[in-house]
Amino acid sequence: MLKKISILLALSCCLVLGRPFSSAASYVKAHLSPEAVDIGAFFNGAQVYVTGDVSRDAEVVVRLSGMGQNVALKKKGKILGLLWMNLGSVTIHNVPNLYLIYISKDFKPTAGAQPDKWEELGLGFAALKKQVDISSAEAESEAVFEEFLKLKESEGLYAIETGQVTYGEAESGGKSFRAVLQIPPRLTPGKYLVETFAVKDASVAARTTAELQVKQVGLPAFISRLAFKHGALYGLLAAIIAIAAGLLMGVIFKGEKGAH
Amino acid sequence: MFWHLYLPIAGSSINVLLIFSLGILVGLLSGIFGVGGGFLMTPLLIMIGVPPTVAAASDSNQIVGASTSGTLAHYRLGNVDFKMGFLLLIGGVAGGTVGVQIIKILRALGNADFLIKVTYVLMLGFVGSYMFLESLQAIRKKKAAQQPPVARESKYAQLLGKLPWQMNFDTSGVRLSVLMPLGLGVFVGILAAIMGVGGGFIMVPVMVYLLRMPMHVVVGTSLFQILFTCINVTILQAYSNHTVDFVLALILLLGSTLGAQFGAKISKKLGGDQLKILLASIVLLVMVKMLLSLLLTPEIMVAYKGGH
Description:
A: 260 residues; alpha+beta; Immunoglobulin-like; 2 domains; 42% strand; B: 73% helix
């Protein structure tokens, strides 16, 4: 029995590994620029570019994803057949805070372009669902994940962005490509993973990764440090500055009134 | 690009002009009616994408500024009853402490959120309708005949007269037992803690109808009391939850302090009954919105935990 399984495994490995070789060495080379995004006081989203080349017969898919984290959610339900309220909670484990896929204008995973083909590719939201762990009954977790996707999409943190990948002239071996990664303004500092895939015949033929560093600088960095390391002092300062601003405004207005 | 600022605690960038106008609007309401405006501002902030906990905490920071400015403006107009304010405040702090414990027990029982929302709808509905009808009647009476109001001793007034420790409140022009503001302060404090708001919109009707203070003094005194409540909340939230976004609060504050100054002037120009009707309409509007959120099917069936 064990032997059979190992043979099967070995065979499937051969199949998977064999593919790139059979298709005359599909490849993808990518360069990320810039490699870091700074969040300053006036930050309002950013653009990051992935450029490189890929084998001529393959398509490029770029995935930008954040670190896995655990997200606690409240579930909404109906009581008395009339009133909506939060009924119970559920936690999704190991789910990225950001998950953006960039594809070209007419990229289709396969001819049919059904959503489940993303699953075959191991990309898209279908792949994400396999990776996460939901702390609720099996039957319910499907629905919870769907609603979670809606929530993330409404925030602009999960998306499949079409038309962001463009190709240059085809040369002998490959073609150049350029992907424009729109980084949303609602961004938390940390490490992000940029993966570039060469997709051919409905499977991933080659893959390369890079890391995108996001950090706060200047005023946001200063305020975050103060707020998280010296909470009491921060709160006190916030209250005092608010009172001062209120008094100042009062004084300005009194001057105006004194004139009449 | 230029008009966007990044909020370090909320973790997102926002349009400065949008936040500034929100501030002016809420400051105006605060100056006119003597309410903190938390019951309006927090939902609006959540609507433009600020996380609920950050929205609530930063809003209390903003109210500190707005109510300072508002209290000062009303003090100059002679509209702040400090004696009454302090007594209400003492009661409010005690009530708040009790309220937090009640919330803990309700959370343990499981259905706290639902109870909070239903309390909200009932309170807002009752207070709003009562104020609205009462002021409407008063305005009609005035128009019908300019007869002087008949001084009648209701049962409530008789009861008030019998309570011990009677005291004169000169600014408000009333004579009351010390127990009244203390007790009502406790009551509002409990409700405010349960509902997670400053309590201005409950305190105002309480002062008008149960303490029988004149509307203009009510507004100033309410602002004075809200100031202290919100200083307390700001420091506590910053210390234990790290949810006060100072950049957000500061922009709101610039708008709301400005609005509060204009509000105080408008308040002086409007008659007491008109003020009451306006406030009653806003309270009823919020009540309807709340009720709809209970009745309509939500678009997304899950929400981040930690909001209120």
